[in-house]
């Protein structure tokens, strides 16, 4: 059990939302925690399928026509890194949100602490994993799972292939860490969202999945992650309040679904 478990935590069980709303809910959870409300662990998925861009990602790296044709939403994260394709089958996303003054000020220490439940979940699934032991060079910088492997926040299996990427951003009074765990690799669909012609074999050599490692169903992956969050934070199962959902829907519409933000990184709410 984490040292943070004497605080009020809630677990939001797997929530299926559009991409812009998922990003807005992370922000709202941070506002709630900063205002003295519960800290939040959440597991979530994306519907419709979504390409989430890193904060500084060049929009020219996206195949916008394919995304529109295939019904794939595009949003931009407030965190760095490259683009990640999320769908209801291959991806399991999660976030941890708490007041900044309750977490380590050192970025590496904070990553280590907030990734503890991820490692608990992987261990429960029978997967040996750890932060990458060393850096690996980028294959394609705009694609998160093909960027250089970073020991600070990339989680790999014992064969060195990436299972999960994590990113963090600090608001003035709260911290959001969110991540993506690959349950299954939709290789061709993932790579098709980028404008470049990318090699599927290179992706398979860099990235593994929970299903490839231990053969479990997605429901088992989700349950392991939810159980790990509950144990780690001594969290109660909770839900978004009506006010939080209203605030998040407004923020999703005005910012995270707004082309000014998605294409130009111009925050219309600033």
What does the radius of gyration come to?
17 Å
Continuous helix count = 10
Shape: globular
- Count of extended strands: 11
CATH topology group: BirA Bifunctional Protein, domain 2
CATH hierarchy, class? Alpha Beta
Q: Which helices and strands, and how do they pair?
A:
Blueprint: E1 9-17, H1 19-34, E2 39-46, E3 50-53, H2 64-70, E4 73-76, E5 84-86, E6 91-99, H3 107-114, H4 116-124, E7 129-131, E8 154-157, E9 162-170, E10 174-182, H5 187-192, H6 200-206, H7 210-214, H8 218-233, E11 236-237, H9 242-256, H10 259-264
Parallel strand pairs: 1-2, 1-11, 3-4
Antiparallel strand pairs: 2-6, 3-5, 6-10, 7-8, 8-9, 9-10
What does it look like?
The protein is α/β, with parallel strands linked by helices. The protein has one domain (3-264): BirA Bifunctional Protein, domain 2, CATH 3.30.930.10. It contains ten helices and eleven strands. It has helices at 19-34, 64-70, 107-114, 116-124, 187-192, 200-206, 210-214, 218-233, 242-256, 259-264, and strands spanning 9-17, 39-46, 50-53, 73-76, 84-86, 91-99, 129-131, 154-157, 162-170, 174-182, 236-237. An eight-stranded mixed sheet has the order 7-8-9-10-6-2-1-11, with helices on both faces. Helix 1 crosses helix 9 (242-256) and helix 4 packs across helix 8. The radius of gyration is 17 Å and the shape is globular. The N and C termini lie far apart (38 Å).
Question: Care to give the gist of this entry?
Answer:
This protein is an alpha/beta fold.
């Amino acid at each position: 059990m984490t040292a943070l478990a004497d605080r009020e935590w809630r677990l939001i069980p797997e929530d299926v939302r559009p991409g812009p709303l998922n990003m807005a809910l992370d922000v709202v959870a941070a506002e709630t925690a900063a205002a003295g409300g519960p800290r939040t662990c959440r597991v979530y998925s994306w519907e419709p399928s979504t390409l989430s861009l890193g904060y500084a990602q060049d929009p020219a790296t996206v195949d916008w026509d394919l995304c529109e044709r295939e019904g794939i939403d595009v949003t931009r994260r407030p965190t760095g890194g490259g683009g990640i394709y999320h769908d209801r089958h291959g991806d399991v996303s999660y976030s941890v949100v708490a007041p900044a003054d309750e977490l380590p000020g050192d970025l590496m220490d904070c990553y280590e602490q907030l990734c503890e439940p991820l490692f608990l979940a992987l261990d429960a699934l029978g997967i040996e994993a750890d932060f990458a032991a060393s850096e690996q060079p980028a294959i394609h910088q705009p694609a998160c799972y093909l960027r250089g492997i970073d020991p600070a926040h990339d989680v790999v299996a014992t064969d060195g292939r990436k299972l999960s990427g994590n990113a963090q951003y600090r608001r003035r009074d709260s911290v959001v860490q969110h991540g993506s765990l690959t349950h299954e690799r939709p290789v061709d669909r993932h790579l098709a969202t980028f404008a470049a012609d990318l090699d599927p074999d290179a992706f398979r050599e860099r990235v593994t999945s929970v299903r490839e490692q231990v053969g479990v169903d997605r429901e088992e992956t989700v349950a392991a992650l939810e159980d790990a969050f509950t144990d780690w934070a001594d969290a109660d199962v909770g839900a978004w309040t009506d006010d939080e959902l209203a605030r998040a829907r407004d923020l999703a519409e005005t910012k995270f679904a707004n082309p000014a933000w998605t294409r130009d990184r111009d925050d219309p709410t600033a």
